[in-house]
């Protein structure tokens, strides 16, 4: 297949990547034929062989008939959906690593998938850069990962400390699961008052705060944190379901580094968190 094919894409290189110890055979479970061909092309570019199927039943047959080293699984796969497949996989093929595919409105399903044994996720539409980055982390065998455990993380002293503030326990659990899998150390608060108490007693690098909460909303939390001394003030990102430019402006003026709108793209959230932490670390003085 020509690299300059039907896909209007930017490719990182015209050469195949050389991973001599990379697993050779990936199973793609995706009902969208165009997306499936795209993922296969990216896998082939990385040196993988691929088998593509359109539903969960075909995937289970392929696993029984072939030697599969990794799985890219659409959570909306027909006949047997991704969550049902993960249950079967962990019972019968516990050592096969899995990356799940989800849309941004599938927060609950994504949380359940991570709890059921998926190693990572990609949100649609999938970018090639994140696809390759996550496939290297999950599917490269020389990393010697134990797929029943979280990836190795830095020492406690070097880990960035994030406070997750949201009155929805499922959202807190999802965010904590994702952030800890990327090496962050997390604490939780279920409302604004509890968050302020924790900020007073601990050293946080970042506060991830929902806007709509009882007792004290996210904007009030941001304003309270902004009154702290510069040297002990964590960065703040506000999350809100309100696509309100006025609220965004208020949050940024109060001291938030960024505002993310629900349902948020988790990949974008991770990039925003990384950028906020980097800017906080490199800044020599507070903005206010």
UniProtKB/TrEMBL annotation:
Q: Which residues form the Response regulatory domain?
A: 25-139, 161-277
Q: Which residues carry this modification: 4-aspartylphosphate?
A: 74, 210
User: Which SUPFAM superfamilies does the record match to this protein?
Assistant: CheY-like
Respond yes or no to whether keyword Metal-binding is given for this record: no
Q: Membrane-spanning regions, if any?
A: none
Q: Which Pfam families match?
A: Response_reg (PF00072)
Instruction: Give the SMART domains listed for this entry.
Output: REC (SM00448)
Under the heading InterPro entries, the entry gives: Bact_response_regulator, CheY-like_superfamily, Sig_transdc_resp-reg_receiver
Alphabetically sorted, this entry's keywords are: Phosphoprotein
The molecule here is called Response regulator
Kindly give the CDD domains that the UniProt entry links to this protein.
Answer: REC, REC_hyHK_CKI1_RcsC-like
């Amino acid at each position: 297949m020509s690299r300059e094919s039907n896909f209007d894409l930017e490719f990182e290189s015209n050469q195949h990547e050389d991973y001599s110890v990379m697993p050779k055979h990936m199973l793609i479970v995706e009902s969208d034929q165009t997306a499936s061909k795209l993922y296969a092309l990216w896998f082939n570019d990385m040196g993988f062989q691929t088998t593509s199927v359109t539903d969960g039943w075909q995937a289970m047959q392929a696993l029984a008939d072939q030697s599969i080293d990794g799985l890219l699984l659409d959570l909306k796969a027909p006949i047997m959906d991704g969550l049902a497949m993960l249950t079967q996989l962990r019972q019968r093929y516990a050592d096969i690593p899995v990356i799940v595919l989800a849309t941004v409105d599938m927060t609950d399903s994504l949380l359940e998938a991570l709890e059921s044994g998926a190693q990572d996720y990609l949100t649609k539409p999938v970018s090639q850069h994140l696809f390759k980055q996550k496939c290297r982390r999950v599917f490269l065998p020389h990393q010697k990962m134990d797929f029943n455990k979280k990836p190795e993380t830095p020492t406690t002293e070097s880990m960035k400390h994030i406070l997750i503030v949201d009155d929805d326990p499922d959202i807190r659990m999802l965010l904590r699961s994702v952030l800890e899998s990327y090496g962050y150390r997390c604490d939780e608060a279920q409302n604004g008052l509890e968050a302020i108490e924790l900020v007073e007693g601990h050293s946080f690098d970042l506060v991830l705060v929902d806007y709509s909460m009882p007792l004290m909303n996210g904007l009030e939390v941001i304003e309270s944190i902004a009154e702290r001394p510069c040297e002990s003030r964590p960065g703040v990102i506000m999350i809100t379901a309100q696509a309100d430019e006025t609220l965004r402006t208020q949050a940024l003026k109060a001291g938030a580094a960024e505002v993310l709108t629900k349902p948020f793209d988790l990949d974008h959230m991770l990039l925003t968190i990384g950028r906020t932490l980097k800017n906080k670390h490199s800044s020599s003085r507070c903005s206010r």
